[in-house]
């Protein structure tokens, strides 16, 4: 994993939580969403992040059959919403400091 990728993984995790707070998400959707913001995230990176966020209790999932394939949809949990709120505050503080 490159230095840039490791550096931005925290931002990616926050972005995933943000999107999951807006409604259900799934892996390919998030890969495309992040591409729109200049991130190149492979399935080999995205799915372990989603699984870890679920294991850590920040997301919960449900499975649905979509055109013969099982798709896993994720939504934010109360714990995820709490860490997202804290992250927004920290990112806001950091942004204000960096932009001075």
TrEMBL record:
Top-level taxon in the UniProt lineage? Archaea
Coiled-coil positions are none
- Source species: Methanobacterium formicicum
By its UniProt entry, which Pfam families does this protein fall under?
A: PadR
| First and last residue of the signal peptide | none
Where would you find the membrane-spanning parts of this chain? none
What is the protein name stated in its UniProt record?
Answer: Helix-turn-helix transcriptional regulator
Transcription regulator PadR N-terminal domain segment(s): 16-85
């Amino acid at each position: 994993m490159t230095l840039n990728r490791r550096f931005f993984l925290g931002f990616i995790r926050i972005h995933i939580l943000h999107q999951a707070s807006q409604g259900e998400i799934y892996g390919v959707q998030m890969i495309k969403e992040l591409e729109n913001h200049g991130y190149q995230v492979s399935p080999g990176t995205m799915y372990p992040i989603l699984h870890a966020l679920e294991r850590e209790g920040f997301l919960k999932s449900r499975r649905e059959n979509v055109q013969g394939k099982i798709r896993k949809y994720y939504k934010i949990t109360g714990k995820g919403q709490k860490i997202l709120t804290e992250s927004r505050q920290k990112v806001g503080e950091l942004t204000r400091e960096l932009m001075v």
